[in-house]
Amino acid sequence: MSSTKMDVFSTRELPLLIESFVSQLKRGQLVGSKTVAMNTANLLREIVSRSPWEDIPSLTTLLKAVGKRLLRAQPRELIIFNVVCRVLHIVNEDYSSVEVVNEEGPMSKKKGSASGASSASKGSETPAMGLGQPGTGQPRNLGEQVSQSMDRATLNAFHLKSLLIQEIMDYILELEKTEVEIADNAREHIHSNEIILTCGRSLTVEKFLKNAASKVKIHVIVAECAPTYDGHEQAQALASANIDVVVIPDAAVFAIMSRVNKVILGAHAVLANGGLVAASGSHTIAAAARHHSTQVVVCAGLYKYSPMFPFDDDRFNTLVSPDAVLPYGDGELIDTVDVSNPRYDYVPPELVDILVDHTGGHLPSYLYRLLQENYAQAKDLAWNIQDE
Amino acid sequence: MSEAKSESKAVESSQPTPALSAEAAEKARLKEERRRLKDIELKKRGIDTDKKDSKSPISKAERRALQEQQRASKQHGAQAKAGGSSQQHRDGGSAASGTRDAREVRLDAGAQHSASGTAAASTTSAAAQGKNTRFSMANRVIPEDKRMYLYLHLDTPQHPPSSATALEVVQSLSINNPAATDHGAGDAAAFAAGIRNAEFPPGPHVIAGMTRDDYVAASTGEPCKVGIAGPSGEPAEALLSDAIPPFSNGLGQRKVAKLSSSMMGIAIHPRIKEVGLRMATMEVSGANARVVSVLAAFADVIADYTPPPQTALYRNLAPHLSAQINFLVYQRPMSTGMGNAIRWLKSQIQNISADMNDDEAKSKLVTMISDYVKERITAAGDVIAELGVEKIQDGDVILTYGNSSTVQRLLIAARDMGRRFRVIVVDSRPHNDGRKLVHKLVAAGFSDLEAAAATTSDSSDMTSAPANHSTRGKGRGRNGLYGGVTYAPITALSFLMREASKVFLGAESFFANGAMLSRAGTAMVALSAHSFHVPVIVPCETYKFSEKIQLDAVVSNELGVPDALMYKTGVPDAEPVGLQCSPSLAEMEYSAYARDRYSARPRWNNRSSLASDTANEAASVIVGAAGKRGKGSKVAAPVAMSDEAKALARLNISCPLSEWRSTHNLRLMNLTQDITPPEFVSVILTEVGMIPTTSIPVVLREYQDQL
């Protein structure tokens, strides 16, 4: 639908929204995977609700166009890609479930399968359940209702729109609650009096540890994570929750590792093979843990799981300003020396023991299955976004 | 038994009789004869014992000061002697009380000596400022060290030059090893030469057995504030070793030598003070530099030492040295190399024959010290550099960590030999030593890619890339295939390790089980190299080998200054230097304990001194800011607020750990060393050849008799 694009950009607010988001991305003003995910999801919801699309294929084209625009603004931000994929997936699932319903009759496949892993394992929080809330006064399954009220020919944007918006809202809700739900798993992984090592700043890890500390006594060692020294904020945050915190320089991780019971890392993104894109320094920490046979637990929300495979480790990395590593005050050196300041590290899956998301722990090797449930049908579409 | 006999002899000889003196003269003649023979023999073996000819570089001013000092000390010696004999008379020869009194007298004499030292210092400084450029800041020890610029602001009296003998040792070091001074690779020698030119405040009079609190009080002139660490008033060290309760028993500082009663009250030589404090402030931190500076200081101590009247040098020198060592250890735990060197020195002192006269013995010891440095450190370094050069090929990408003098020397030697390779310097907090290395490498032309390209294109065989070069790092950034320097924090290790073709690491020590003790982070680099299948090559002089066995780094480690982790260096908003603030804050980028650098433990009292003036102001600023944010109304900020206070306030906001001491469950642990398991080290380059880690016990066995 070539006309669709025109339609979207003719409405006044949407281009503004998109442009402001793009410029924020380009300037690096959106920090943290959660923020990026929330913002992207909200933007896509706006697009779904405000743009005058007519049918699902046109909406898909539209979302892909926007997704491409966002990815071009920040090509290395896997989270944008994940969220776009996920929304495309939601759109697709709805569409196909409605189709199925129409073909096979009201009592056959339910839309419950649409929301994938989340609905399968954690009923109360899933989009499907959200849809069936009593306040709406609707029958349990919206797909059913839709199919009852109209046949395929009359399936129009108006009805699908509210359905989709609701679904995306649920997804956003899920995003919001991710950390808390991951943290609920803490007691399964942390025993009392354990010494836990973590590095850098991660809200997910912070909540996870605080949850654990609310029930048992733990000791946390925080590697400060040069050159941002995010670990300082993490340490401060944990200490304020009355956890015993010790800050160590990054260099001392190996030295202290023999006394550590568990390493808990956050991740910026999780790749399809189970490898991590995490704060720089994570790889050596994970390797040191492996050398001492210490378990590595990675806390990452489902939205961080990306259907991309790491063919080249550097593909997902960015080099940031060297100023923090070698101050510009060192003029003579700046002129002559190369200063590397990578923002992320690639941690291979064999160094990761467990990935914890809001549904519980998974092996890195199990990731493909989760991805299929969350992105299966959008993946092919998504590859197009990446390629062009 | 023999001791008792000689003691009684000493007591006897305090009232000399004519017969005895004749006998003594005969003995002296024999001794003189023996010494001459020995000298001849030594000369045959090429060991230069006669140091007294190479005096020329001492300036007039220094010599005058020296003479003054000697005169002063002679006078005091005489006084002490007089006092001692009168005491003895009064006590009627009771041996025990006699020695005790003698010790007291010595303490007294020491005090006077130090006072005269200060006097000499002031005269020297006057003389030096007049016409001598020797003391100019341009000749500083480690001129590229950024902390050095602070000295420009320091208005301190100059340190009196100590004995000529020690000066010669140092000079011989640099004279006999022109290679060492050439390209600054012989850090050790250069350092020793530099320390000679260093200015240093005389500081308070220090005696062994002083507690730290006493010392701090004496040096700052205020009552000690050391114990400010914990809110509950616990001393900081207790807090630290208690940092993680489950292993609080194991982790701690290395043991500080115990002060035996015989050391009490012995005066600490000013050079020892200087070296000790330099080590405490981490100004001297390399393993080699530490040993050389300590040995050079011991040469001074020995040269300046006069045994108490009527006693033998070889018996009194050892406890005298022990007191000095105790002070050093107190400043900073001893390194393995220092331990080995000191053990060696003590055994040499014991080996001095009883009938050698004091001056001979002294000059012999000083000579031996200089030989030790020459053989075991300087020459060994040369051999290692030669071995290392063989291991570097054109097109290599060498990764190294921190700043090891041996590695630095090796790399520069390889460059001078015409090898063309890239260097990646990985670095870490808190010392960022790697920057020094980068400066040296850049100065040696490593980043001069045009030159590298020119040489490589000249020789036809280098047009094709070497077989083992890493294609991944080719031409990244400013680096070429044959040159360039990359600098990165340790967190970027796995990002860069894929580019490396060889890893060179410096070691502080090797244990008998093959484990390597080195600066914290070395083990991570070695591990990373191991997992990327990059060979790890460690140049290490054999004097650093230790017979101990250590399995992990928690059992024994050195805890650094926790405050060094307090601030975020290099983060723009947290950069004290970037802000418009006074030097005292600017200093903190490079040293967390800059202002009180000369106190015994600058680490502990720094915070109070820094904060004392400004903390209240800063706190009120923060409170004010918070209030503003909270209420949205005008909570008046303090009217007059210095720039320093503003800077500190901003610093506190961007560095959340700056108030860590007031949070009882938040601690900073600055481990400074770690243990690299033997399997990570591919080969050790020593002066006895290239050996695997399993051969360390063999080498130790070979050297046993030399210890």
From TrEMBL, chain A:
Residues 136-146 have a biased composition (Polar residues). It comes from Coemansia pectinata. This is Translation initiation factor eIF2B subunit beta. Its main location: cytoplasm. Belongs to the eIF-2B alpha/beta/delta subunits family. One of its GO terms (molecular function) is guanyl-nucleotide exchange factor activity. InterPro entries: eIF2B_beta_subunit (IPR051855), IF-2B-related (IPR000649), IF_2B-like_C (IPR042529), NagB/RpiA_transferase-like (IPR037171). Residues 101-146 are annotated as: Disordered. Component of the translation initiation factor 2B (eIF2B) complex which is a heterodecamer of two sets of five different subunits: alpha, beta, gamma, delta and epsilon. Subunits alpha, beta and delta comprise a regulatory subcomplex and subunits epsilon and gamma comprise a catalytic subcomplex. Within the complex, the hexameric regulatory complex resides at the center, with the two heterodimeric catalytic subcomplexes bound on opposite sides. The gene is GCD7. Transmembrane segments: none annotated. Residues 113-124 have a biased composition (Low complexity). One of its GO terms (cellular component) is eukaryotic translation initiation factor 2B complex. It comes from the Eukaryota. It is found in: Cytoplasm, Cytosol. The keyword Cytoplasm applies. Pfam families: IF-2B (PF01008).
TrEMBL record, chain B:
It is found in: Cytoplasm, Cytosol. One of its GO terms (cellular component) is cytosol. The keyword Ubl conjugation does not apply. Residues 1-131, 457-476 are annotated as: Disordered. Gene3D superfamilies: Translation initiation factor eif-2b, domain 2 (3.40.50.10470). Residues 1-10, 24-66 have a biased composition (Basic and acidic residues). Its main location: cytoplasm. Residues 11-23, 109-130 have a biased composition (Low complexity). It holds the Pfam family IF-2B. GO terms for molecular function: translation initiation factor activity. The keyword Cytoplasm applies. InterPro entries: IF-2B-related (IPR000649), IF_2B-like_C (IPR042529), NagB/RpiA_transferase-like (IPR037171). Keywords: Cytoplasm, Initiation factor, Protein biosynthesis. Component of the translation initiation factor 2B (eIF2B) complex which is a heterodecamer of two sets of five different subunits: alpha, beta, gamma, delta and epsilon. Subunits alpha, beta and delta comprise a regulatory subcomplex and subunits epsilon and gamma comprise a catalytic subcomplex. Within the complex, the hexameric regulatory complex resides at the center, with the two heterodimeric catalytic subcomplexes bound on opposite sides. Belongs to the eIF-2B alpha/beta/delta subunits family. This is Translation initiation factor eIF2B subunit delta. The lineage of its organism: Eukaryota, Fungi, Fungi incertae sedis, Zoopagomycota, Kickxellomycotina.
